[in-house]
Amino acid sequence: MSDSVATAPIAFIDLDAQRRAIGPRMEEAILRVVRSSRYILGPEVAELEAALSAFAGVPHTLSCANGTDALALALMAWQVRPGDAVLCPAFTFAATAEVVAWLGATPIFVDVCEADFNMDPASLEAGIDTARRMGLTPRVVITVDLFGQPADYDSLLPIARAHGLKLLVDAAQSFGATHRGIHVAAIGDMAATSFFPAKPLGCYGDGGAVFCHDPETLAVLQSLRVHGQDNQDKYENVRIGMNGRLDTIQAAVLLEKLRVFPAEIAARQEVARRYNAALADVAIVPEVPPHRLSVWAQYTLRIPGRDRAAVLASLKARGVPTAIYYPKPLHRQRAYARYPVAGNGAPVSERLAREVFSLPFHPYLDPATQDRIIAAVKSALA
Question: Which stretch is the leader sequence (predicted)?
Fold first, then answer.
């Protein structure tokens, strides 16, 4: 390794590497929208929605302004309201529970599994019992495919069906992942994703999408996305909605990125494989069962019993950036502390919050830089 490579700054997620790889096609796609002056719901938006449906194997896709709006649109389409309970993981980003509270419903926090960081089926059952004991009506389960790996849908989906609950897949980190060969966006009753720039498929600003299986739901989502307007008369509002449209420029960006997305997913597998092979002897590395394909939104290690702050300081001193997703479970945060937790609490979520940290990861992470990161981790954990 040359001195210049050994000392070059390392990007946690190198978006510029992707931009360089895509090249002039992206610039031309953006300029085409600028020249057209069709900045809102231009033709690229419908083209993107069709391309996303084809990619994910879902009949209908509705693009929207961001991943949080995507979650909210799905719940609004199901008319989630006060008195309803929505089951969601304790170990995730706040947006998953935030949209539930927006609608006056009650989020109930469910614990996760150590093996994959995703919703624990046994805790889900306990959460449904908790909701009913509180006099709430369980309506929806929101699974989150954390860090890009699909949840245990073999167990979670039958539980939702047995209790008559809708299942909403929060695929903000997992769009492109599969479970038994099925894209995560096609699992459950609806799915939502985010196109935030750092996501596996990200745009040059903010964006999101909702995936559904029938034209009636799509029509409701289309109305909700534009202030609840009638789909035939823009000045007749038939429901309370939002301003959730995706900008045409972002649609053009995503169309170009979708062209290279399959190759990037394959590259992510190789980066994760090299990390796992090199680090399994010093930390608990993420494992993906054979019937699941992760898109590796983050590569997250566990170091139980170690001084995480000291480890991260050591990596920082060696020029290796890190991140903690997530340092505090949702039920321990001030905004959500008043909401119920399933069963006897979420001890796994609390333990993981103390143990995890994520390394630089993206599909353009070259072997030399990855080897430098691996060496730094091994040294920090020696």
Answer: none
Q: How far apart are the C-alpha atoms of 1 and 226, rounded to whole Å? A: 54
Q: Is 318 left (phi over 0), alpha (psi -120 to 50) or beta?
A: alpha
Taking the C-alpha atoms of residue 215 and residue 23, their distance in angstroms, rounded to an integer, is: 37
pLDDT score of 1 more than 60: no
Same domain assignment for residues 318 and 172: no
- Are 245 and 270 in a shared domain? no
* Alpha-carbon distances, residue 202 vs 40, 195, 258 (angstroms): 19, 4, 9
Last residue of a domain, one of 256, 279, 305: 256
Q: Is residue 99 part of a domain?
A: yes
CA-based nearest residue to 261, from 62, 52, 61: 52
Distances from the Cα of 288 to the Cαs of 48, 242, 262, 276, 284, in angstroms? Answer: 30, 38, 18, 11, 13
Radius of gyration of the chain (CA): 21
- Proportion of the chain above pLDDT 70, given as a percent: 98
Can you tell me which residue has the tokens 């964006």? 207
Token pair recorded at residue 200: 């596996």
110-133: per-residue pLDDT in tens? 999 999 999 999 999 999 999 999
278 plus 222 within the same structural domain: no
pLDDT for 7 equals: 64
Give per-residue pLDDT as tens, 328-341. 999 999 999 999 99
Residue where a domain terminates, one of 198, 228, 256:
256
CATH code (residue 342): 3.90.1150.10
Which residue range(s) make up the domain with 363?
Answer: 261-380
Strands 208-212 and 190-194: antiparallel
